[in-house]
Amino acid sequence: MGKKKTRGKRGYPLALLIGFLPMHLVYYNIFSERVELRKKRKLPRKFDNMDKKQKYAFFEEIVSELRPILQNELKNVLLVTKPKKKEAQEFLNHLQQHHRWILNPDHHNAATFSHLTGDVSDLENASIFLQSSEIQKKIGQANEIESNRIMKTLEQRLNDPDQGFTLHTLKEIEDLIYAGGTRKKKFKKLALNPEYILITDQYLENQSNKNRLHRLLQIAQNRQIRTRIIDSGTNAGSRLSNLGGIVCFLKMTSNYEKQKGEEFFDKKEEKASGKKT
What global pTM score does this model have? Predict the structure, then answer.
């Protein structure tokens, strides 16, 4: 009996790639270690043969598919077309006319779009396309824009503790996330919902118990809590490293949330004092 084939690690998410093909639309998840096909959708007719109404409906379907991704997963989107094709540019024009929020850097669900040309017709070609140093640079630049946007929100939480709070250790974040259970089918609603969990790639690499950290990230993902791995070599990564390499931050807008926040920290202090005695 032959050995069971194992897939290599996929790493952490970097971007979403949308490829415009003559009769298909393909979505790929781009991870730090590999690319995975997310979805492939057949078009009712070639884009060049669509009328204005059909193009509008086509673009609206893409927006509908992007909404949950931008809200819970990624905000870095690569739009890839064949050379001289105009689908991506027309889609961006559609966003400018009908969904300006998605291009507004101040909106919490805004995305960073990059328009590229190449062959992403299948997984092999997409993988080859993404190996280009130019494409890798584009992905890095877009991720840096998103990271800076997130860090701006983090600084607001750090400077205004009355409106939110931050956690700076793996144990604190586990206590918060695991309070509602760790099994997806038996999740209880969290009293406090994090805006983000941020980790530097260096913190992830140096973690002695990677399974523990990956478990937290998986449970956070199951709860649709946004997580980001940030390049330590960027300004955002440097700032995050100064904070310990891992941060979870929350915004508290209601008295109920503020009360729950106080209770969380009271319990933490009780545990700390109990250990001292």
Answer: 0.82
CA–chain centroid gap for 236, Å, is 15
pLDDT in tens, 155-170: 999 998 887 889 999 9
Query: CA 5 to CA 64: how far, in whole Å?
Result: 36
Cα(254)–Cα(236) distance, integer angstroms: 29
Q: Give the structural domain span for 111.
A: 13-131
Residues 116 and 207 in one domain: no
Q: Of 100, 131, 162, which one is at a domain's C-terminal end? A: 131
H or E stretch covering 29: strand 24-31
Cα–Cα nearest to 99, from 132, 140, 70: 70
Number of H-type helices and E-type strands within the chain: 9, 9
CATH code of the domain covering residue 25? 3.30.420.60
